[in-house]
Amino acid sequence: MADLIALFALAVLFGGMVFFAAILAPLVFTRLPGEVAGGFIRAVFPVYYLFVLINAALAAVALAFDLPIDAAVMAAVAALTLWLRQGLMPRINRLSDAVKAGDASAKPGFDAGHRLSVILNMAQMLVVAAVLARWALV
Questions:
Q1: Cβ–Cβ under 8 Å, residues 125 and 14
Q2: Rg (CA), the chain
């Protein structure tokens, strides 16, 4: 049963991450006006990170007995997601608000935070893909 839970959590997690990065985010920014798109994405990110956190944690628990290294990797994905959601995302939002209010000095911090969040999200996606592929080969 744990095998099925692990497979489900990993597949749903990877599919959701790919959908968000490849479909949802580009579609929002190409089809909606900038201010609306930014507000929509700001509202979606906490839900997205919660989705990643729950599925990564579920996969970690389900993998713990058979594949402890993979379980630890998924626990690290969950922990990083918690920091992204509770630490980096609020900082990026504050900097974005400051830029919109005319504080040009906040722009480099926003750009760096945004870039870091994109890099970490892509790294997490690759890690989840690797764990899913490894699980499928076991």
A1: yes
A2: 17
Task: Let me know: does 66 contact 3? Beta carbons within 8 Å.
Answer: yes
Tell me the C-alpha distance between 134 and 14, whole Å: 13
pLDDT band at 28 (very low <50, low <70, confident <90, very high): very high
- Report the run of H or E that residue 82 belongs to, with start and end: helix 68-83
Name the residue with tokens 């949802």.
24
Q: Report the C-alpha gap between 71 and 79 in whole angstroms.
A: 12
Can you tell me the mean pLDDT for 19-37? Answer: 93
The CA distance from 108 to 95, in Å, is: 9
Domain boundaries along the sequence of the chain: 2-137
Which two tokens mark 4?
Answer: 């099925």
Q: Out of 5-9, 33-37, 44-48, 109-113, pick the least confident.
A: 33-37
Burial of 63 (0-12, 13-18, 19+ CB in 10 A): buried
Token pair, residue 80, equals 């990083």
Residue 34 pLDDT > 90: no
